[in-house]
């Protein structure tokens, strides 16, 4: 027991190495830009002031969003997704998967669940002993179930999910701005040092290396930032991009997509004035998410009106359902599905009992 605990502590300590590395690079970049470049290399006072002003704005926003991404705890499923004590004991005693699923189906009747496993079963985490809400997954690194889990990022030593996904996007955005600004303003002095137009001094190494580091991080961050912007526009997580969520009607990679504008609002909120600030403004509670009722265009739907006598049918476009209508209809469908499932299983068991009794009577 003790060696396992020590090993776990060592793993947690080693997990901070990437974060410490990034922190050291950022501290050095601050020193190299402010002291070595602006104070010792740039001769023009006006240029120094302008550079320092924009540098500190980008630096503060970058550090702020990075801090929020690291130290915002991942959101976990609420207690309502835990099995009641009696059901939990029954579940643990059951050895047959079919019987365990029956227990989960009964417990899920009052829960807003629309996704299933690939086999159509209730998603349950044996490690955390909770029924998984939609878009929730278990993180082996954090050893917990995380709401709307996107991925576990070693560079922030944290799970990126519902509670900090906006902060993670802003962290990528401001780190890209930070690196681009440094690379653009250092370039002319990099060339002057490289061509020996400026005398060799202690600032030369810092300026040359600063440009290389900023350019290198720009390239890597740009690709990652572009990918996550695409995910936000599609309302998918990284996990869902590789494995489409499974609904009652089957897998659907666009099952949570509500249209581009609503997808953006899901992450950044309704008030645009807070979009660029690292404060939590994401919509919802992370436990339930509005879904598309049909595999059709999220912005437009078509319905057929059944005519009364002496009237003709007509197809008319209607506006998409509101989120409250979507949630209400989905809840009704969800309850009906579970009732049908339980009724079918009850019918099967009743038929088997009838057959057994009939055979005993004949014998």
From TrEMBL:
<dbReference type="Pfam" id="PF01529">
    <property type="entry name" value="DHHC"/>
</dbReference>
<dbReference type="InterPro" id="IPR001594">
    <property type="entry name" value="Palmitoyltrfase_DHHC"/>
</dbReference>
<keyword id="KW-0012">Acyltransferase</keyword>
<feature type="domain" description="Palmitoyltransferase DHHC">
    <location>
        <begin position="123"/>
        <end position="242"/>
    </location>
</feature>
<dbReference type="GO" id="GO:0019706">
    <property type="term" value="F:protein-cysteine S-palmitoyltransferase activity"/>
</dbReference>
<keyword id="KW-0472">Membrane</keyword>
<keyword id="KW-1133">Transmembrane helix</keyword>
<dbReference type="GO" id="GO:0016020">
    <property type="term" value="C:membrane"/>
</dbReference>
<comment type="similarity">
    <text>Belongs to the DHHC palmitoyltransferase family.</text>
</comment>
<feature type="transmembrane region" description="Helical">
    <location>
        <begin position="12"/>
        <end position="33"/>
    </location>
</feature>
<keyword id="KW-0808">Transferase</keyword>
<feature type="transmembrane region" description="Helical">
    <location>
        <begin position="167"/>
        <end position="191"/>
    </location>
</feature>
<keyword id="KW-0812">Transmembrane</keyword>
<feature type="transmembrane region" description="Helical">
    <location>
        <begin position="49"/>
        <end position="67"/>
    </location>
</feature>
<protein>
    <recommendedName>
        <fullName>Palmitoyltransferase</fullName>
        <ecNumber>2.3.1.225</ecNumber>
    </recommendedName>
</protein>
<dbReference type="InterPro" id="IPR039859">
    <property type="entry name" value="PFA4/ZDH16/20/ERF2-like"/>
</dbReference>
<feature type="transmembrane region" description="Helical">
    <location>
        <begin position="203"/>
        <end position="227"/>
    </location>
</feature>
């Amino acid at each position: 027991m003790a060696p396992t605990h020590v090993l776990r502590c060592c793993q947690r300590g080693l997990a901070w190495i990437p974060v410490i590395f990034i922190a050291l690079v950022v501290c050095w970049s601050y020193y190299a830009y402010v002291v070595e470049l602006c104070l010792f290399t740039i001769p023009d006072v006006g240029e120094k002031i302008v550079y320092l002003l924009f540098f500190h704005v980008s630096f503060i926003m970058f550090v702020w969003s990075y801090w929020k991404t690291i130290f915002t705890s991942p959101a976990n499923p609420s207690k309502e997704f835990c099995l009641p004590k009696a059901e939990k004991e029954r579940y643990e005693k059951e050895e047959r998967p079919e019987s365990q699923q029956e227990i989960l189906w009964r417990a899920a009747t009052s829960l807003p669940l629309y996704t299933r496993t690939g086999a159509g079963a209730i998603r349950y985490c044996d490690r955390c002993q909770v029924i998984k809400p939609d878009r929730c997954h278990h993180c082996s690194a954090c050893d917990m179930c995380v709401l709307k889990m996107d991925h576990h990022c070693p560079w922030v030593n944290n799970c990126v999910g519902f509670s900090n996904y906006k902060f993670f996007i802003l962290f990528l955005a401001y780190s890209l701005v930070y690196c681009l600004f440094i690379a653009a303003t250092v370039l002319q002095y990099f060339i002057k040092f490289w061509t020996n137009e400026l005398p060799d001094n202690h600032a030369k190494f810092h300026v040359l290396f600063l440009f290389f580091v900023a350019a290198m991080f720009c390239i890597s961050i740009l690709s990652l930032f572009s990918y996550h912007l695409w995910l936000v526009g599609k309302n998918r997580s990284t996990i869902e991009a590789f494995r489409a969520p499974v609904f009652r009607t089957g897998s659907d990679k666009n099952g949570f997509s509500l249209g581009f504008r609503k997808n953006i609002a899901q992450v950044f909120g309704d008030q645009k004035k807070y979009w660029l600030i690292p404060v939590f403004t994401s919509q919802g509670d992370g436990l339930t998410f509005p879904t598309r009722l049909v595999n059709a265009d999220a912005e437009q739907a078509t319905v057929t009106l059944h005519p009364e006598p002496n009237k003709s049918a007509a197809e008319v476009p209607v506006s998409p359902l509101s989120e409250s209508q979507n949630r209400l209809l989905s809840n009704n469908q969800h309850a009906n599905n579970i009732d049908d499932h339980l009724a079918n299983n009850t019918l099967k068991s009743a038929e088997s009992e009838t057959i057994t009794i009939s055979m005993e009577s004949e014998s």
